[in-house]
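Recall the central idea of this unit: under ordinary conditions, the amino acid sequence of a chain determines the structure it adopts. In this exercise we apply that idea directly, starting from the sequence alone.
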Amino acid sequence: MAVLSYNEILPKTVIDYNGEPYEVLSSHVFRMQMRKPVNQTKLRHLVSGRVIEISFHQNETVTEADISNMQAQYLYTNRGESWFAETGNPKNRFSFPEETVHDKVQWLVQNAPVEVLTYEERPMTIKIPVKVELAVKDAPPAVKGNTVSGGNKLVELVTGAKVNVPLFIRAGDIIRINTDSGEYAERVEKA
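Accordingly, the structure predicted from this sequence is:
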């Protein structure tokens, strides 16, 4: 574990702050008039997803969190918990509260591969691909003259997620979704 000085705390790094793993979302080093420099950061807790703002001063250091990766498969979500199993070791099952991983799980079909970040051998959170391909389960028909709203309609995917797509998308089409923004990217396969 590397020790980071105040100006090395940069976005996308994972630090150990008060004994808990936090991902750095943003950092801004600045100096106010005659004072010493300060790094103003936004940190997201890897387990709860809670975001806090912390200012690190010139004499402060933090340690980089010892994070490792594990390959796993998404199994199902039931009663407020999303369940996963380690790839190659199906007996190693674990769950996360649904509210902490819902924004990622909504883009996963059963047995989809995911990357699990572990901290001190404990699963903390999941990482999914930036783009996923999903089939459209239900799409309202395109009505002629229905372009007042920009030519989009709301469809339901096989995972249950709802996405705005262009009018030419029909049920059965396979579309690519950007999981970071939750937006339609392109049609991959026509029904």
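The chain has a mean pLDDT of 88.
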